Write a sequence for this structure.
């Protein structure tokens, strides 16, 4: 089997694993009442961009080979590195969901009896779910031997991050005040010790 095909298969398995991790939390979230926030136009654009870049466009490439003009030679080291990065992304994604529990929401919302979570990956960064999307985008670059499909994940992540993170932090400051401000002083946004 060609190295490029192995990378594509690993990417597909990774995306399926991503959905398997998220699905039970989506189901549970529907049962917890929302007390503040909700989906805005920019929130919808950000989520759609991430979905397009991390799933739709690369899935189209894997299924059709289009745009083949952007293909580049695949290498075993790139697929191995992409697999490691993608696995790390999935682990952080799972741990983030687990720590958030009933507080998790796909949109910017405050749930009934919402608590500030500072444990697990949240002890290192304020937004580990964005960290996982960043890593998924990086892993995608190494797994898919196509410049367009590869980099689309990072672009989708960047749009989501830039449209949401400031709003998310303002919402948390409004809800948790000095407690969140103190948490911000101890942690970085998405890259431990750096940013």
């Amino acid at each position: 089997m060609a190295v490029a095909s192995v990378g594509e298969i690993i990417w597909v398995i990774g995306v399926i694993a991503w959905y398997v991790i998220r699905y039970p939390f989506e189901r549970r979230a529907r049962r917890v009442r929302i007390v503040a926030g909700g989906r805005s136009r920019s929130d919808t654009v950000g989520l759609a961009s991430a979905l397009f870049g991390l799933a739709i466009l690369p899935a189209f490439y894997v299924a059709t080979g289009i745009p083949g003009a952007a293909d580049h030679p695949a290498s075993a080291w790139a697929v191995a590195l992409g697999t490691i990065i993608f696995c790390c992304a999935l682990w952080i994604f799972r741990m983030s969901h687990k720590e958030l529990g009933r507080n998790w929401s796909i949109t910017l919302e405050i749930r009934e009896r919402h608590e500030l979570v500072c444990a697990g990956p949240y002890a290192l960064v304020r937004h580990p779910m964005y960290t996982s999307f960043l890593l998924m985008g990086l892993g995608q670059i190494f797994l898919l031997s196509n410049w367009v499909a590869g980099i689309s994940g990072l672009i989708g992540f960047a749009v989501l991050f830039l449209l949401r993170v400031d709003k998310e932090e303002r919402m948390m400051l409004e809800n948790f005040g000095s407690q969140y401000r103190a948490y911000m002083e101890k942690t970085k946004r998405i890259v431990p010790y750096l940013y």
About this structure: The mean pLDDT is 92. The helical segments are 3-29, 41-64, 76-100, 128-143, 147-186. The chain has one domain: 3-186. The CA atoms of residues 12 and 41 lie 29 Å apart.
